[in-house]
Write a structure and sequence with these properties.
- With 184 residues, this protein is α+β, with helices and mostly antiparallel strands.
- It has 2 domains: 30 residues; 150 residues, no CATH class.
- It contains 1 helix and 11 strands; from the N terminus they run H-E-E-E-E-E-E-E-E-E-E-E.
- It has a 9-stranded antiparallel β-sheet with strand order 1-2-5-8-9-10-11-6-7, with no helix packed on it.
- The longest helix has 29 residues.
C-alpha cells in the first residue's frame, strides 16, 4: 500500500512539474524574452526582460481607470520572471552608487516620476513584489508622456557625451535612467 502511495505521489509531482514548465514556456509566446546589452567604454551592462504587448489596454494610470499597471504599485518592468540588470562594474545610477552584480530591477510608476529599485532577489517569477529589505538601491527618475504609442515594451540603451541612459518605452510613456561609471 505504501509503495502504491509513493508511486502515485511521484507521478503527481512529475505531472505538476511538467504542467508548470509548459505554462512558463507558453507565456513566453505572448511576452517574448529579450536581452539588451551595452558593452562600450568600460561599461558591461545587460538587461534581460520579457516584452508584453499593449493589446488595446490602458497600461499606466490610476487604479480606477483599470490600468494594467496602476500608479504607486510594484511593477517588474516586463512580464513573466523578474527583469534582471547585470553590471560587471560599479555604476552611478542617477548619481547613486550601484555595486557590480546581478539585480532584479523593478519600478513603481507614477504620473510624472518613477521609483526604480535594484534588488538582490533576481530569480523571481510572477508579479509578486520582492522584499524591499533586499533593495540595494532606489532612485527617482522622471517619466515623460509621448505623442507616439509603442505597442510592445522596449528597453534600450542611449548614450550621450556624459551618460548612458537606460530607456524604457511602452504605450505613451518614456523613462530614462541615467547611468555613469564610478570613477576609481
Amino acid at each position: 500500500m505504501k509503495k502504491k502511495l509513493l508511486i502515485g505521489t511521484g507521478v503527481v509531482i512529475i505531472l505538476l512539474t511538467g504542467v508548470l514548465f509548459y505554462l512558463r514556456s507558453a507565456t513566453k509566446k505572448h511576452s517574448p524574452n529579450s536581452t539588451v546589452t551595452y558593452n562600450q567604454n568600460e561599461y558591461n551592462i545587460a538587461i534581460n526582460y520579457c516584452q508584453p504587448f499593449k493589446k488595446g489596454r490602458v497600461i499606466f494610470g490610476p487604479k480606477e481607470t483599470g490600468a494594467l499597471q496602476a500608479y504607486g504599485e510594484y511593477w517588474r518592468m516586463g512580464a513573466n520572471e523578474a527583469t534582471t540588470f547585470n553590471t560587471e562594474t560599479a555604476l552611478l545610477i542617477n548619481g547613486n552608487e550601484l555595486p557590480a552584480g546581478k539585480y532584479a530591477i523593478y519600478a513603481i510608476p507614477n504620473e510624472t516620476a518613477w521609483t526604480i529599485a535594484f534588488n538582490t532577489e533576481n530569480d523571481r517569477w510572477g508579479a509578486t513584489a520582492p522584499d524591499e529589505k533586499n533593495d540595494v538601491l532606489r532612485v527617482q527618475v522622471p517619466s515623460t508622456e509621448t505623442n507616439t504609442i509603442v505597442e510592445q515594451l522596449n528597453i534600450s540603451f542611449e548614450p550621450d557625451s556624459t551618460h548612458v541612459y537606460t530607456l524604457l518605452v511602452w504605450d505613451n510613456v518614456s523613462v530614462k535612467i541615467p547611468i555613469k561609471l564610478v570613477k576609481k
